[in-house]
Structure formats: structure tokens, C-alpha cells
């Protein structure tokens, strides 16, 4: 892969050397990760699950026997190796290793036999992936020992800054500790926060807090976070974990919302249909043909009331109908927007898209703003999918996703 006409140039004083790149992408370019992801977008499917971050690719296979794991991994590695050869991508066999994660202590020294191009991959008992060392039992003991050593070295730097006669101020030490110590101590904290080996790191963090405050060893550990104004390490890790889980939950909720919205693309919501009119697909199809003066009855997959039968004197509930063809749905909604209320046969019906409850609430939140907009001359507005308010005034177009921001904008217009 690569870009045409790319070259690299090295300059040292008055000496320079230029070399043309035949493949690859420029190192350090902001577009390089994007171009690489586009290039391997058609990566073949494998039995193993694939995890990728930029140009780092990992595959994971779960089986109950060692032979099944080795057979599956060898097969998948063969598929990936063939793909890489086809598209002239070189696999770094020196950096490609295998690892096993299990709780069977009798097989603690067991090594996987996985090969690529007739070369057996190195087996590592604790492989480092994206900065986290994953041991066999996922206890993160080796990783936290490395973190402890790294944090200890950085605390030594803080101690040097806090000289007894010329040392930095408490504020400077606090900022430096957050930048140097906590950044290293909390890297990927949601992954290993429940490990029993966390206690290897916490005492080193407490030493940094003692340096900031000038407290001695006898000072209770519980006092240090209060004196420094930094939350305890355990609470900071829990906060990071909650934030990570919140992001995952929101992503899943958005995916569910998107799936539900896509499933309703062929739906229409009809308001004003009397209860006695019937809600069978045949009855609703006939009603739509008469109301919209269609050449033939549209094909409906199903139709039903949104709620149980209303009490006497209450307004009839809306009817949801799913049209078989998307074009029929688009044409009906377009005509409904143009004609507003459709009168026929002694009744008036309104037809709207069938939005999800979340989108319907978001669109309804703009109702007060829309009432204010109707009082301004020369202004055009409309609600865009899923819930965006577009306002055009004096040739200037603006969009709002927050009703409060839109209301502030409208009130400022009225003052002018």
C-alpha cells in the first residue's frame, strides 16, 4: 500500500539525502492510520475474534482443549498470512507471539504450537499488549510490578523537585505529581482495578502525597488525599472504571436505538382513525388509498393500534402501519407534509413518521421554540432527522440539537 510520489528526506547541517518510498505510508502522518484502516477494511473473517488498534492485530479463540485451540489458531493464521501476501503486507514474525490464558495450574508451563509460513511463533507467558502485560491468570501481577517500578522512578523525580531549601511550591509539586505519577499509575486502570496486586502501587502513590504535603511516615494514610486535594487512588480508579462502563453502555444503547430506528423506516403513524374503522392491513390499505387518492392500494405487511381500546369519550389511539415498499412510505409522508390534515369521508387524519420513543421526546422538546419562531417574520425553520432544528434567517442557516440553545438564539433575535 502507499501513496504515489511520496519521499523521505534527511537533513544534517548542509548534508541531505532523499529517498523515494515504494510502499507504506508516511511515518507520523495524521492520515496514515486512516489510510491503513481503509486498506485492510476487507480483512477476511476468521473463526477467532479479531481485535485491532491501528496496525496491531490480535486474534483470540476460546476452546475447551489445547488441540482445538492450536488447530483453530493455525487455520486462522494461515488465512491472515495469505491475505497479507496477496496485498503485499509483511507480517512481523519477530513481534508475533502466542499466549494462553487459563486457570489450570497443571498446564501452567504449556506452550501453544502455532506456526506461520512454517515458522513456529514464540510463546510468552505474560504478553504485553497496548501497554498492559497480560499474564496467564489475568491477575496482572507482572504488569503492576512494572507499574510500581515506573511510578517509583517518577516519585524520585518529585522528591528531587521538593528540595528542603530551594524546593518547588506545593502547587507545583501537586501538578507535577498528577502529570507524572498518576498518569503512569492509572494507565488502563479499569482493566486491572480489581486485581489483588493493586496494593503494590498504592504505597508509592502515598509517598508522592507525603512529598507534596511534607508529612512524615506516622501521618495516617487517610489524611493525605484530604491535605493534597486529590481523591484517593482507589476512588480515582473506580471513577475511571465507571466512566469506561458508561461509555460502553451508551454505545450499546445507541446501537439499539439505531437498530430500532432502522426497523421503523417503513412505518407510518396515522392519527384520527375512528376505532370502528378497523386496523387490519386490508382496512388501513383501503383507507390510505382513499385519503391520498392513490391509483392502487399500497401493500401493507401489518398494522395495529398503539394502545388498548380507549374509554368512551376519549380520542382514538394512533394506528401504526408498516408498508412493504419504502417508496410508498416516502410518497405518503411527503404528501402528508404538504397537505397537513387530510379530510375525507367525514374524518380528518394526520400521518407522521413512526419515530422511536427517544427520538419522539427529543423532537417534542423543540415545541416551545417552534411556537416562538412562528412569530418572527422572514424566518424559516424545520425539524430534521433525528432531532435537529434548522433555522434560516436573513440568508444565514443554523442548526440546533439543544432546545435551550435554540431558545436563547430565538430570544436574542426578538430583542434585535
From TrEMBL:
Keywords: Coiled coil
PROSITE patterns cross-referenced by the UniProt entry: RT_POL
UniProt-listed Gene3D superfamilies: L1 transposable element, C-terminal domain
Record bears the keyword Transmembrane helix: no
Pfam families: RVT_1
Residue ranges of coiled coil: 235-262
Domain of life the protein comes from: Eukaryota
Domain Reverse transcriptase: 1-134
Transmembrane listed as a keyword: no
InterPro entries, per database record: DNA/RNA_pol_sf, L1_C, RdDP_mobile_element, RT_dom
Name this protein carries in UniProt: Reverse transcriptase domain-containing protein
Organism: Muraenolepis orangiensis
Amino acid at each position: 500500500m502507499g501513496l504515489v510520489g511520496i519521499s523521505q528526506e534527511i537533513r544534517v547541517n548542509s548534508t541531505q539525502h532523499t529517498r523515494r518510498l515504494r510502499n507504506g505510508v508516511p511515518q507520523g502522518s495524521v492520515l496514515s492510520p486512516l489510510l491503513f484502516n481503509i486498506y485492510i477494511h476487507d480483512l477476511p473473517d476468521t473463526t477467532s475474534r479479531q481485535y485491532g488498534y491501528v496496525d496491531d492485530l490480535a486474534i483470540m479463540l476460546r476452546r475447551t482443549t489445547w488441540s482445538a485451540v492450536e488447530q483453530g489458531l493455525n487455520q486462522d493464521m494461515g488465512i491472515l498470512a495469505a491475505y497479507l501476501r496477496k496485498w503485499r503486507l509483511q507480517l512481523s514474525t519477530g513481534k508475533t507471539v502466542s499466549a494462553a490464558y487459563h486457570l489450570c495450574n497443571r498446564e501452567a508451563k504449556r506452550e501453544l504450537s502455532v506456526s506461520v509460513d512454517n515458522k513456529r511463533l514464540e510463546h510468552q507467558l505474560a504478553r504485553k499488549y497496548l501497554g498492559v502485560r497480560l499474564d496467564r491468570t489475568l491477575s496482572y501481577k507482572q504488569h503492576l510490578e512494572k507499574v510500581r517500578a515506573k511510578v517509583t522512578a517518577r516519585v524520585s523525580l518529585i522528591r528531587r523537585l521538593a528540595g528542603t531549601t530551594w524546593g518547588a511550591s506545593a502547587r507545583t509539586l501537586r501538578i507535577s505529581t498528577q502529570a507524572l505519577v498518576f498518569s503512569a499509575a492509572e494507565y488502563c486502570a479499569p482493566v486491572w482495578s480489581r486485581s489483588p496486586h493493586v496494593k503494590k502501587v498504592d504505597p508509592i502513590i502515598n509517598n508522592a502525597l507525603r512529598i507534596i504535603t511534607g508529612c512524615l511516615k506516622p501521618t495516617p494514610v487517610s489524611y493525605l488525599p484530604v491535605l493534597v486535594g486529590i481523591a484517593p487512588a482507589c476512588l480515582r480508579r473506580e471513577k475511571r472504571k465507571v466512566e469506561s462502563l458508561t461509555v460502553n453502555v451508551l454505545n450499546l444503547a445507541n446501537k439499539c436505538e439505531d437498530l430500532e430506528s432502522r426497523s421503523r423506516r417503513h412505518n407510518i403513524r396515522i392519527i384520527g382513525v375512528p376505532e370502528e374503522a378497523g386496523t387490519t392491513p386490508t382496512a388501513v390499505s383501503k383507507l390510505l388509498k382513499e385519503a391520498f387518492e392513490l391509483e392502487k392500494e399500497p401493500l401493507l405487511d401489518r398494522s395495529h393500534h398503539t394502545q388498548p381500546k380507549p374509554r368512551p369519550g376519549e380520542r382514538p389511539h394512533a394506528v401504526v402501519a408498516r408498508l412493504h415498499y419504502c417508496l410508498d412510505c416516502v410518497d405518503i409522508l411527503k404528501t402528508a407534509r404538504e397537505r397537513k390534515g387530510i379530510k375525507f369521508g367525514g374524518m380528518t387524519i394526520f400521518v407522521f413518521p413512526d419515530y422511536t420513543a427517544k427520538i419522539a421526546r427529543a423532537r417534542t422538546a423543540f415545541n416551545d421554540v417552534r411556537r416562538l419562531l412562528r412569530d418572527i417574520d422572514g424566518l424559516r425553520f424545520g425539524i430534521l432527522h433525528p432531532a435537529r432544528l434548522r433555522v434560516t434567517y436573513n440568508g444565514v442557516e443554523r442548526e440546533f440539537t439543544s432546545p435551550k440553545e435554540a431558545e436563547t438564539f430565538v430570544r436574542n433575535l426578538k430583542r434585535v
